[in-house]
Amino acid sequence: MAKNKTASQSVAFGQNISVKNANLWYGDFQAIKNISMEIPERQVTAFIGPSGCGKSTLLKCFNRMNDLVDGCRVEGEFRIGDADIYGKTDVNDLRRNVGMVFQKPNPFPMSVYDNIAYGPRTFGIRKRSELDHIVETSLKQAAMWEELKDRLNKSALGLSGGQQQRLCIARALAVAPKIILMDEPTSALDPISTGKIEELCDELTKSTTIVIVTHNMQQATRISHKTGFFLLGELVEFGNTDDIFTSPVDVRTERYITGRFG
Amino acid sequence: MTVHSTKTKEKIGKAVFAAAAIICVIAVVAIFAFLIYKSIPAFGKLGILEFMFGDHWSPDRLDTYDSPLSGTYGIFTMIVGTLAATSGALLIGGIVGYFTAVFLAFYCPARPKRILTSVIQVLAGIPSVVYGFFGIVFLLPMLSRIAPNNGSGLLATSIILGIMILPTVVSLSETGLEAVPRAYYEGSVAMGATHSETVFRIMTPAASSSITASLVLGIGRALGETMAVVMVAGNAPTYPNGLFGSFRVLTSNIVMEMGYAGEVQEGALVATGVVLLLFVLVVNLIFGAISGRKPGAVVGKRKERRLAKARCSRGIRIKDTIGALAHKLHAVKLGRGMAIGSGILTGAVLLLVIGFIFIKGLPYLLQNPSLIYGKYEFGSHNITILPAIVTTLYAVLISLLIAIPIGVMTAIFLNEYAKKENIFVRLIRSAIDILSGVPSIVYGLFGMITFVKIFGGSSNILAGALTVSIMLLPIVVRSTEESLKSVADAMREGSLALGAGKLRTIFKIVLPSALPGILSAIILSMGRVISESAPFLYTMGSVITAVPKGLFDSGATLAVALYQLSGEGWYMNQAYATAVVLIVIVLALNLLAQQCAARLGRKLKGETNGKK
Ligand SMILES: Nc1ncnc2c1ncn2[C@@H]1O[C@H](COP(=O)(O)OP(=O)(O)OP(=O)(O)O)[C@@H](O)[C@H]1O
Ligand SMILES: [Mg+2]
């Protein structure tokens, strides 16, 4: 038990992601084509590109959610810090360190408190005081403590969509991940909720690496330090967000960000 | 809880779920192996054709396989009887059921609709012995006024079976009718067609495949029904001769003679079961073909595509139809009348069955409450159903203890682990489909010759419970799987993405959300155990006099007790009262099921907690 609580120390997950010659197939269909990239630690990296170009697919490689897809085959090297995540790494341990926020908020049908305590409990934390502390810190980190502290025992399903999504972020934070993956986290939300989540991302880079998929160029320019542009399974261009949006090297990138993509 | 032990746990978990699923397959294999093993000598000795097409049945229980036969064993009269009774049931239950469905879908206002829908649920839950009993005490006396005999025969059987298949026909047809796109309706009405014209010319044809499927399922139900038929058919092994006159069906042949069968006779009865099973399997195949891949999904993909195609040409066809329609207004009016009449008739039937039995039985029960808790005294007429109540409790408890875990784990395996449709998974699914089609009397036959023999030769509670728990498996698996499917994948992903393992995800996230379905599986199973009698008669026993002291004692459940009491003729008051008790239990379970579903459904949506 005690050993498990410190399991994160057993493998040294860093905070940067390094991808070398990644290829991925869904059955016969190749969704990712020979991608290599270095995602820096404690920054926001944005993935942009037209629908179906493989952004989510690549994102899900980082916490091996692709393992759930039948007939999905991954090749290449994925490292988080020094850990080879498709090697000896335990997948649950990996996911604990690489959190994920989904496009549609997916709070569990239980109380706010239990939602956040779910992850810590998974890893063996049972003491109420300890859980209380984690719930409070996570909610504070997600800037929700004030609005939720009086309704911790209410069902999370009663929250608004924006609150639910931030709760999901808090839930991810509760296991102290080194990296958080976000797949279009604001696409189902109103502008105010979106703004709150963007602020949150900025705040979180103090301690975590964030990789975010977005269809919203403004969002990418507002919050990300690095941007990768994907097309048909390839990484066309990857660099500082400012450079990508002001002086893209590749003509396809330019066409996409100026909205002239057919 | 180290990484290593978690992995081991996951593996063990998966293995346990798979093992449960394998049990379902083993059950099917065992039943078929048993049927084949027991019937082949009989087919050999009697000759398949002589057995199937011989129309003389007079078994001699001293016949053995080693000596020349002195009895004759031909079941053709019963095959004809089965087909005749099924057709009669289809004629009555099919027509009334179809029009009731139309009524519910298109004519009934919301409130009465809710009532009628629960009426149909209740009709579905009433034990077959209660229908048989109603036949004996109400229908036969009525019919005897116009019949040359006591009223038993094809007409009575068809009416009772017709009532029994009503719920199946109504609920499936209604689902199909309501799945027809609203746009059809609007399109037709917009062209000036009336409501009824639209209903009968556009909506019902569009739902024809689900309506057919519902009728086929009704046929399956009628084919396999045993006890109710035994109680009103007369059971002489002759052809049905007109509307009245004693005849016998395949299922009742087994029930009538299984209790005292000799060697060859037993083989011939198992062979009867095989023939019956063939009929049922053919019907199931037809149903499967009509309703897409598997029972339950009535409006299949194929149908949707066809509907979409139809939508394109519908506009033109509507115009044509409406022209021709002016002449057929009468037919449409008749249809409307039939729909409304059938809806009312269905409600009235329930009222009649329940009302009649209550009026006759309730006063007796209230005046003689000791019927429920009294002690049986040998030689007196102080009947008590306490032993039957205790036996029923045993039966419910033990069969659920066996069927629920195995069924739920099988469902978990199918839904959570077996995403790929490989041979193993297909095997499990067909096993469950087959189990759900096996008529209950065949389970009884199987249990009698396997479990009863294993436990020392005389019927006992454990053997009965084991028998019926196999029968419950498909109910539990399907209901559970349905509710597992309704849990969004986003929930599973959310849990896995936090680093939780598969087992934790299943037990903490998926199962709690699926609880309503599992609860309803439990309630459905309880109802089934309480209302079944055919599988219990020769496995658990028919002793109504002594409270069983343990699992190896024999005992009659309430339903079996009702069969016994009504058969003997001089305990009619007690029989009425027993029927009242059965109906009350069924009604209570029904109510419970609805409450559970509603309450948990609300909780799932977070409404009880997050009101503010
Ligand atoms: N489970 C799957 N099985 C088969 N093919 C898949 C699967 N998931 C995605 N694909 C295919 O892989 C390609 C990349 O999909 P992916 O979801 O990564 O795109 P995306 O860039 O995230 O698109 P969007 O912006 O629409 O979310 C698409 O062509 C998609 O059809
Ligand atoms: Mg995507």
Give a description of the structure.
The complex is a heterodimer of chains A (262) and B (612). Chain A has helices at 2-5, 55-61, 91-97, 112-122, 128-141, 145-148, 161-173, 191-204, 217-223, 241-246, 251-257, and strands spanning 13-26, 29-39, 44-48, 72-81, 83-84, 98-101, 179-183, 209-213, 226-231, 234-240. Chain A is of the alpha/beta class. Chain A has a domain at 17-107 and 179-257: 3-Layer(aba) Sandwich (Rossmann fold), CATH 3.40.50. In chain A, the strands form 2 sheets. Chain A has a 6-stranded mixed beta sheet with strand order 6-7-8-3-9-10, with helices on both faces. In chain A, a hairpin with a 2-residue loop joins strand 1 and strand 2 (29-39). The longest helix of chain A is centred in the middle third of the chain and has 14 residues, at 128-141. Chain A starts with a helix and ends in a 5-residue tail after the last helix. Chain B has 612 residues and is mainly α. Helices cover 76% and strands 1% of the residues of chain B. Chain B contains 25 helices and 2 strands. Chain B has helices spanning 3-46, 48-53, 76-107, 110-125, 128-144, 154-179, 182-190, 195-206, 208-224, 227-233, 250-258, 263-290, 301-325, 329-367, 370-373, 386-417, 423-437, 440-449, 451-454, 461-485, 489-497, 502-531, 534-537, 558-568, 572-604; strands spanning 57-58, 72-73. Chain B has a two-stranded antiparallel sheet with strand order 1-2. In chain B, helix 21 (489-497) packs antiparallel against helix 22. The longest helix of chain B is centred in the first third of the chain and has 44 residues, at 3-46. The A-B interface holds A 1, 3-4, 7, 10, 63, 65, 68, 70, 90, 92-97, 99-100, 102, 104, 106-111, 118-119, 122-124, 151, 153-159, 168, 171-172, 175 and B 1-3, 6-7, 419-420, 488, 490-491, 493-501, 504, 508-509, 512-513, 603-612. The complex binds adenosine-5'-triphosphate and magnesium ion.
